[in-house]
Design a protein that fits this description.
The chain is of the alpha/beta class. It has nine helices and nine strands. The structure holds 1~{H}-indol-6-ylboronic acid. 1~{H}-indol-6-ylboronic acid binds next to β5.
């Protein structure tokens, strides 16, 4: 998979050189490139923004600069690319979006700043046949798209085959295939701060451990995210032998 990120703060994406994503880049599993939008400016001050039509506070990022950058980044291989625009006015990004994006050959993240990117940029590429996803990572507002891009890239990259050691672990994690929050986890020491590990986890009885974990996932999800319980597909409940 190839991922390009266009931003006026390339250093913000330095975290993608670390940990699993960094290793995937070094081993060639992930072709991730970060670009400075100002490289496509032509004036001495490397200007990327201007005042908003219609008035109002703040500045808007210019479509001509973004157009030159995205034409270059979208223009090469692979043939089919998806443009992802982090924005507080977008659809809320979920694990389902991560799964869908992980199936793409090429993602291009356009990280806005100021009051955002001129709306004609997304409109132009949609009209040109480029799939465009305008996505928010939650109901709060950041100062730009870089942090949102980091969140989405990590959520997507970890689903790329070969990224995580044990793909089975992706099924049981929160928001995974079972559609539930993950059960509580414990490790040594068996007693800490006067608190003990649930006895069933020390029993060595795998069937009992599995049932306990499924029950805990249901209990936790019911308490914290009743909306997820409502959304559960009955077939999922059967598939994972879950009982509400
Ligand atoms: O909250 B966000 O996800 C977000 C995304 C992009 C821009 C651009 C300017 N402010 C932004 C906020």
């Amino acid at each position: 998979m190839r991922i390009d990120v266009v931003t006026i703060f390339p250093d913000y994406l330095a975290a993608l050189d670390l940990s699993l994503v960094g290793k995937a880049r070094r081993t060639g599993l992930l072709d991730l490139r970060v670009h400075d939008l100002r490289d496509w400016t032509t004036d001495r001050h490397r200007t990327v923004d201007d005042t908003p039509f219609g008035g109002g506070a703040g500045m808007v990022m210019r479509p001509d600069i973004w157009g030159r950058a995205l034409d270059d980044v979208l223009g090469g291989p692979p043939a089919q690319s998806r443009l992802v625009v982090p924005t507080p006015s977008g659809e809320v990004f979920t694990q389902r979006h991560a799964e869908a994006l992980a199936g793409e050959e090429h993602l291009v993240f356009a990280c806005g700043r100021y009051e955002g990117i001129d709306a004609r940029v997304a409109e132009h590429y949609r009209a040109a046949g480029v799939p465009v996803s305008e996505l928010s990572i939650g109901d709060y507002v950041l100062n730009g798209g870089e942090v949102a891009a980091l969140v989405m890239i990590e959520a997507v990259a970890r689903l790329v085959p070969g990224m995580v050691g044990n793909p089975e672990s992706l099924v049981e994690e929160s928001h995974g295939a079972a559609g539930l929050l993950e059960y509580p986890v414990y490790t040594k020491p068996p007693e800490w701060a006067g608190l003990e590990v649930p006895e069933v986890l020390l029993s060595g009885h795998h069937g009992r451990v599995e049932r306990w974990r499924r029950d805990e996932a249901i209990t936790r999800t019911s308490a914290r995210r009743p909306d997820m319980i409502e959304a559960l597909d009955p077939a999922t409940l059967d598939k994972h032998d879950l009982r509400l």
